[in-house]
């Protein structure tokens, strides 16, 4: 059923997972040979030389942090120079979802794809789903949905995962009733979903009085799972494990919650992950301090990404001896942090808290459009109590952003998703 590369890679990682110190040693050993391969690529060769990463045949691991982060602008400007001259089997071009603006083009190969599939099977296995058991994917990427409907490759992948695909771009009342009926009929072991899409479906089910099958795991990805969201899902699916998963089209799987792991287990066999200070770029190693996520791919030989600034913020989990390295939490996109006139950064979760428990809220988006201006866009569910809460929301925003901050409100019939199908509740709309 599965490609030999998938089976071999999956077996290797599973054998290591149960022994965290051995797993960590294995992962640390993957970085140097990967960077030696990258040193044959013109773009990296010059950057590595400037950082002093290699002197003759000697590798200086302590200088890795001096290599400048790779930005999406770098990729757009130097796509050809970032590719290895040796052609790999199954080499093909792919694009990012474009959740932060213009999609980014990049090149991947057969090994990368096989190992990405293996990692997807892996995080299911670590949360109660055996390979081949039924799953539902509630997904919102227009490209993925179209390819999932008509593309031969996507149809094959859906068969590999024994997957039923539901389009979260079409979350009309009729569609959501159909999706609930499908989930109850299929009775999947796992639902893999955009986090905001499953929350939207659950809220609809509660309003309409529907019950839904409780799968072993509900894997939530492609968005920030705020504590209130997790609480809603756990209340509605009391027999399901709610799993936060983190990855991207550019690099594959990065981290996921797993039974027995404190936080989101970093899948360092596929990606070397660093956290750095957002202003200084210095490494963050201690738990509890938020930093920018940099990812170095270890499985893409056609176009490896080194210290790729993926645009997200996270913090490490506390770690005792013998435990896996993990993330305590994901803060989502860096642009979900608002910036005050005094230079302070306010995390987006503060603003989502202002809306939870408001009975009139269907959905909302808080946008910082300038250093002293915040727009609140909202959709009501017909309840007339919205106006009495707006003053309290304004007071909450001004309490952290400054009393001179202009806060405006706009009632809408709907709020658009991003081009990738993801939904961002809090966003800063300037650099």
Please explain how this structure is put together.
With 431 residues, the protein is an alpha/beta fold. It has two domains: 243 residues, ANL, N-terminal domain (Rossmann fold); 92 residues, 2-Layer Sandwich (GMP Synthetase, Chain A, domain 3), CATH 3.30.300.30. Helix content is 33%, strand content 26%. It contains twelve helices and 22 strands. The strands form five sheets. Strands 6-5-7-8-9-10-11-16-15-14-12-13 form a twelve-stranded mixed sheet, with helices on both faces. A hairpin with a 5-residue loop joins strand 17 and strand 18. The longest helix has 19 residues. The chain is globular. It starts with a helix and ends with a strand. The mean pLDDT is 86.
């Amino acid at each position: 059923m599965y490609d030999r590369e998938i089976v071999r890679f999956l077996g290797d990682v599973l054998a290591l997972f149960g022994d965290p110190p051995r797993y960590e040693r294995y992962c640390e050993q993957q970085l140097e040979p990967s960077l030696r391969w990258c040193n044959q690529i013109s773009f990296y060769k010059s950057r590595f030389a400037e950082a002093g990463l290699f002197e003759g045949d000697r590798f200086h691991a302590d200088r890795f942090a001096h290599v400048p982060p790779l930005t999406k602008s770098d990729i757009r400007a130097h796509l050809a120079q970032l590719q290895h001259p040796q052609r790999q089997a199954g080499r093909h071009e792919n694009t990012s979802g474009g959740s932060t603006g213009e999609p980014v083009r990049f090149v991947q190969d057969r090994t990368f794809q096989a190992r990405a599939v293996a990692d997807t099977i892996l995080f299911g296995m670590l949360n109660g789903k055996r390979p081949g058991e039924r799953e539902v994917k509630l997904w919102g990427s227009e490209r993925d949905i179209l390819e999932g409907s008509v593309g031969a490759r996507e149809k094959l992948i859906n068969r590999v995962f024994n997957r039923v695909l539901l389009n979260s771009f079409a979350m009309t009342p009729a569609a959501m009733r159909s999706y609930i009926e499908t989930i109850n009929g299929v009775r999947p072991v796992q639902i893999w979903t955009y986090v905001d899409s499953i929350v939207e479906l659950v809220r609809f089910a509660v309003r309409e009085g529907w019950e839904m099958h409780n799968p072993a795991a509900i894997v939530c990805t492609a968005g920030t799972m705020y504590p209130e969201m997790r609480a809603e899902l756990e209340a509605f699916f009391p027999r399901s494990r709610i799993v936060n998963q983190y990855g991207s089209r550019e690099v594959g799987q990065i981290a996921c919650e797993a039974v027995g792991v404190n936080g989101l287990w970093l899948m360092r066999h596929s990606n070397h992950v660093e956290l750095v200070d957002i202003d200084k770029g210095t490494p963050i190693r201690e738990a509890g301090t938020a930093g920018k996520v940099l990812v170095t791919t270890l499985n893409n030989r056609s176009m490896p990404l080194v210290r790729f600034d993926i645009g997200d913020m996270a913090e490490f989990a506390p770690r005792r001896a013998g435990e896996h390295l993990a993330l305590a939490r994901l803060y989502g996109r860096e642009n979900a942090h608002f910036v005050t006139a005094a230079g302070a950064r306010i995390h987006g979760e503060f603003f989502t808290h202002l809306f939870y428990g408001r009975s009139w809220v269907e959905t909302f988006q808080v946008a910082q459009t300038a250093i002293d201006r915040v727009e609140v866009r909202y959709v009501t569910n017909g309840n007339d109590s919205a106006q009495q809460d707006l003053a309290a929301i304004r007071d909450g925003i001004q309490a952290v952003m400054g009393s001179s901050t202009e806060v405006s409100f706009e009632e809408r019939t709907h709020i658009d998703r991003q081009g990738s199908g993801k939904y961002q509740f809090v966003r800063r709309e300037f650099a």
